[in-house]
Design goal:
With about 110 residues, the protein is of the alpha+beta class. The chain has a domain of about 50 residues. The protein contains 3 helices and 5 strands, in the order αβαβαβββ. The protein has a 3-stranded antiparallel sheet, with no helix packed on it. Strands 1-2 form a two-stranded antiparallel ribbon.
Length: about 110
């Protein structure tokens, strides 16, 4: 948090609108994030602009390398999170249950 506070001070000097936020605020902004062990974050509402098509292709390529199957032209109708953290994905072509994987960082 000390590093984030120093960054926020630098951002204020540069007239950037960043804010220190709590784990509850993080969860409110992005409910799918696991905030266990998180004490805070530095939030910039104007940050995070990217090319959606390029990002999608990059995620798909990384997922394929990890063994995922990519299904195209299959509209997602509904997402339902299960208690252990996995998801039921309801699609036009049927239901898919995701795996719940915890990485080395606990996320």
């Amino acid at each position: 948090m000390d590093f984030l506070k120093a960054e926020r001070a630098k951002h204020r000097y540069m007239d950037l609108e960043t804010e220190l936020i709590t784990p509850d605020e993080i969860k409110e902004l992005c409910p799918v994030l696991n905030v266990d062990g998180v004490i805070g974050a530095l939030y910039d509402p104007l940050d995070g602009h990217l090319d959606p098509a390029g990002t999608t292709h990059a995620y798909a390529a990384a997922a394929r390398k990890q063994g995922a199957e990519i299904i195209l032209r299959n509209r997602v109708i509904e997402l339902n999170q299960k208690t252990e953290g996995s998801w039921d994905v309801v699609t036009e072509q049927g239901n898919i249950t995701t795996e719940y994987v915890v990485n080395a960082a606990g996320l």
